[in-house]
From TrEMBL, chains A, B:
Gene3D superfamilies: Fumarylacetoacetase, N-terminal domain, Fumarylacetoacetase-like, C-terminal domain. This is fumarylacetoacetase. Its cofactor is Mg(2+); Ca(2+). The lineage of its organism: Bacteria, Pseudomonadati, Bacteroidota, Flavobacteriia, Flavobacteriales. One of its GO terms (molecular function) is metal ion binding. SUPFAM superfamilies: FAH (SSF56529), Fumarylacetoacetate hydrolase, FAH, N-terminal domain (SSF63433). Residues 24-126 form the Fumarylacetoacetase N-terminal domain. Pfam families: FAA_hydrolase, FAA_hydrolase_N. It is an enzyme of class 3 (hydrolase). Belongs to the FAH family.
Length: 424, 424
């Protein structure tokens, strides 16, 4: 079924060493070529591939597809078709671009309609997201935050090991990599103040997360089991859940994060399918206590994905501030989706479910400035000598992620956003 | 501008005494007539009016409208046109159905295409909702809940009087009046248990709320002021924010309500415009302390709307369990919207923002069973002699709302949903 994953396959399109996008990846995204229409596409090396042109020119014949399924502004209609179709399309693309197949390779006219240098296309938000949920599934992150705010004894809330804690976020302000954000303005209450104050957030932070994108689920009232969950998951992206710690701290009791989060979240533009990540399955951390039956999973239900965060000050070079891994998460994506729907909550194609900050056991694995600077107690020194406790205006935050073994590297590219000054 | 509000106007369509829908209301909704296409419509008395037919037959000539704006499954495109267009359409409808205007009245063929008895159409969800936010703006409700769970001294959180506390909810599970719900299943931790348990919620509740629907806002990063806010609000509906108190209690710390809420929320099908509610403007309760400048409003910025909740057991009659009023809310809708966007969060046409449970000062004003039964300490006796602490399987919960003065009654109709047994 997963012939697209054959590690020995090479493409006639050039793939630079250590590219995130060998022919074994074949992620899906939406892009706007210069002087052309928005299209759904995929990517090999540094070449963007127009799937609507590939489809119209007959290269996908044999797969049952709606005529305009790739001539869309979002992946939603394609996602609705379901995993068997995603697989057929990915396998077919792998055949078309296999180095042993010279049909398209030798057709200059078709190549001009289908292939674009990646630097000549504009990547767009890949999905229309009706609902976005953020989980809180890293035990190391929950412990760090708990210790900072409640002390070591009460660090983890009583429910934390029994269910994947989550909350609803704002869909409208999810943006694609490359879009800048403004420092948010709002109401805060400094520790030494009697009354709240108004102004730009002083404690702007990133959160290193990943998000998965679902397809259409079941009817309202019905649940998706952990065994079924992966059939409802299209793929994953890098997710920077921007946070204003001072706004969040004042507002979040008792109903949770709101304006401290909903000013922006940034995602990477290429959705990597679970199929492409198949060689990188690993087991989740052992769960003790054993969760209730509806949350139990067996075997390798998560993925070994290296994650990095960099800060690039204005007119300077980038510095790595964090190195983490998706596999550290205590709750896996099947558990998250089963929990989300256990009460009958329905899901739709394009819904986004993010992991929560992904921290690991060591200090360099911490996935937010809140943890790296330990609530501002320490200073992080960047490679250019400048110091940070949180994020400054002019800083660009870059997150990258990839899976890698001896045979292949399957990457997510990057999510990057620059922080502009507040609009007052 | 608001000639549609002329209280002396009468319609040639019959309007029963105490109807919520006199010619001064003219709400907007979406309905499916028998053997016809889904259309946007309005309502006078018990007659549903097909606006796409009215438009196609030339009755709206003179208003600049996209050709298919009423031939839609949702109001979103119409909402996007903005308040000046909403007003023109409402004023024009008022003229067409004025008792002094016999053009349509005398055209039997056109009347057959445009008018439907309300019982022969199926009301549909009026808007596509990308993002749904729930506020917590009733001081009486926040106090009641606070006293129950934290005691009188700490009832209101320190932030409560400084900002309209809110959180994001789930859009996908918002349903229209008439759709039934299943009792949600999930994880709870009974007070006397050492470990959490799995099963149907035992503490299913309604929350008496209202929701407002927005039009497109500003760019990400820009805010809407309290003075501008009403220009971005299309209208209001009744909102039943179903809640499973036992699921909520176990899950909600520290990130807020999730599965205790997102299994369903029910709304009334007719969106009543702010214009129609104009005669019922009142001042909000005095705010002490004075909020920060970005939250300040002057004059009559809320509305006098009588609200009622009824429980109808299976095969029995309905009993009123609560009588409240929208005017009790401490934070008005302009403050809610200004707060929501102060950090640059963007809004779209069709977004739903609900009030939170609307309780008032007296016991009969409490807007949830949690408060009416004081967390199960008291029993509510219904008219048929049956007793309730929370909602039983087979119960239908009905909410109604209306504004009324000596001249006119502008109502919201009702939102009604029946509770079916859990799917195990």
């Amino acid at each position: 079924m997963l012939t697209a994953n054959d590690p020995s396959r090479k493409s006639w399109l050039s793939v630079p060493q250590d590219s995130d996008f060998p022919i074994q990846n074949l992620p899906f995204g939406v892009f706007l070529p210069e002087d052309d229409f928005t299209t759904i596409g995929t990517r090999i090396g540094n070449t963007a591939i127009d799937l609507s042109a590939l489809h119209q020119l007959g290269y996908l014949d044999g797969i049952v597809l709606p005529e305009d399924v790739f001539l869309q502004d979002t992946l939603n209609d394609f996602i609705t078709l379901g995993r068997p179709v995603w697989r057929q399309v990915r396998n077919k693309i792998a055949e078309i671009f296999d180095e042993k197949n010279d049909i398209l390779k030798n057709n200059t006219e078709h190549r001009e309609q289908i292939l674009f240098p990646i630097e000549e296309v504009q990547m767009l938000l890949p999905v229309f997201i009706q609902d976005y949920t953020d989980f809180y599934s890293s035990m190391e992150h929950a412990m760090n935050v708990g210790i900072m705010f409640r002390g070591k004894e009460n660090a983890l809330m009583p429910n934390w090991k029994h269910l994947p804690v989550g909350y609803h976020g704002r869909s409208s302000s999810i943006i694609v990599s490359g879009e800048d954000i403004h420092r948010p303005v709002g109401q805060m209450k400094p520790a030494d103040a009697d009354e709240p104050v108004f102004g730009p957030s002083k404690l702007l932070d990133f959160e290193l997360e990943m998000g998965f994108i679902t397809t259409d689920g079941k009817h309202l009232g019905e649940r998706i089991t952990t065994d079924e969950a992966e059939d409802y998951i299209f793929g994953m992206v890098l997710f920077n859940d921007w946070s204003a710690r001072d706004i969040q701290a004042w507002e979040y009791v008792p109903l949770g994060p709101f304006l401290g989060k909903n000013f922006a979240s940034s995602i990477s533009p290429w959705v990597v399918t679970l199929d492409a990540m198949e060689p990188f399955r690993v087991e989740s951390p052992k769960q003790d206590p054993t969760p209730l039956p509806y949350l139990q999973t067996e075997g390798k239900r998560t993925f070994d994905i290296n994650l990095q965060t960099f800060i690039q000050p204005e007119n300077s070079t980038e510095s790595k501030v964090c190195e983490s891994n998706f596999k550290y998460l205590y709750w896996n994506i099947s558990q998250q989706l089963a929990h989300h729907t256990v009460n009958g909550c329905n899901i739709n194609a394009g819904d986004m479910m993010a992991s929560g900050t992904i921290s690991g056991p060591e200090k360099e694995n911490f996935g937010s400035m809140l943890e790296l600077s330990w609530r501002g107690a320490h200073t992080i020194t960047l490679d250019d000598g400048s110091e940070r406790k949180f994020i400054n205006d002019g800083d660009t935050v870059i997150m990258r992620g990839y899976c890698k073994n001896d045979d292949v590297r399957i990457g997510f590219g990057e999510v990057t956003s620059k922080v502009l000054p507040a609009i007052l």
